[in-house]
What does this fold into?
Amino acid sequence: MKTIIERGEKALLHTYNRYQIVLDHGKGVYLYDKDGKEYLDFVSGIAVFALGYHYKDFDDALKAQIDKLLHTSNYYYNEPAVEAAEKIKKISGMDRVFFTNSGAEAVEGAIKAARKYAYLKDGSTEHEIIAMEHSFHGRTLGALAVTGNPKYREAFYPTDNGVVFAQMNDLESVKALINEKTCAIMFETVQGEGGIYPADPSFIKEVRALCDEKDILLILDEIQCGMGRTGSFYAWQQYGVKPDIMTTAKALGGGVPVGAFLMTEKVGQNSLVAGDHGTTYGGNPFATAAICKMIDLYEENNIIGHVNEIAPYLEEKLNELVKKHDYVELRRGMGLMQGLVCKGPVGDIIKKAHERGLILINAGSDIIRFVPSLIIEKEHVDKMAEILDGILSEQ
Ligand SMILES: *Cc1c(COP(=O)(O)O)cnc(C)c1O
It folds into this structure.
């Protein structure tokens, strides 16, 4: 592993402080490094491998599509893309789908659709989006514009780019920013990177009502919390509200890079038209065949039912760690998207976990984030809790 790491240090741009591990292959909820060491994985490639590693039916579907056609461009139709769009419509209740290659690109498209919708209404180019502090929407310039973390934005932006920031779950802070220029209010239904903050039911409902009253679009980013992670296909489905535009990615392709932004028919008919938006790779038959198979497998194996069964057990085990260890302040989260908020940095805890064969990740400096595969069983939760308990006991 050492030589690969040394070569990587010379060839890759230093945008990540990578852990000193070279991952080689995976099976189920386990990963193996180049030296053959086994790790129980509670990160799943950051909420990506919802069905774990090398789910046979999924791999077979990908291989079959490789043998047919990988790419067509969007000047033609391809069947997997049409089928994937229909399936996403069905699980989300949204009406129109645009496929992208990543989460950030889905966010870009969502922003463009909202701005175009407002532009068509009044011809103004001065519209504002209200986003949230501590949000994370991706690293491209458009997605960064709505990301409420100065650390990520500072070097790349003039201060005024038509985005203002409110506080998540603080309706008054949203109201204070609304004016005639506001075209959209945007947030993650459950903030991920920013610290695992689920939206309060009252907040999301009242923002929805405000949006309806003023014809402002509600954009929900479900890139991390979507695809069954919180116990429904999309987290907002548990709140009794519906967004006008939403984004999905990460687990959508089960490891194949793909995302999408979706909208209601009303927004679809009154925003982006031919020539307004495009992508070379987005919606290619390989990536969309992956989406089709993922959604089929969710349904065939009642993956969401399993999440609802196993998540309370994970919560219970994490609650025990909160009770037992002074260093852990509280647990927060929804379904299989959980955070343990600690009283200080968690970097060393995560490194020790790696040493002991457990893959964990942080969210911010003080929070341990749990976004495992959705197929984890009680025995995996037990094993994770036991290793973490051992580490916290030495804290
Ligand atoms: C990961 C993430 C993104 C960005 O997705 P990429 O595929 O990394 O571009 C956007 N929004 C949320 C909520 C995310 O978790």
Summary: The domain at 69-300 is CATH 3.40.640.10 (Aspartate Aminotransferase; domain 2). The chain has a mean pLDDT of 97. The radius of gyration is 21 Å.
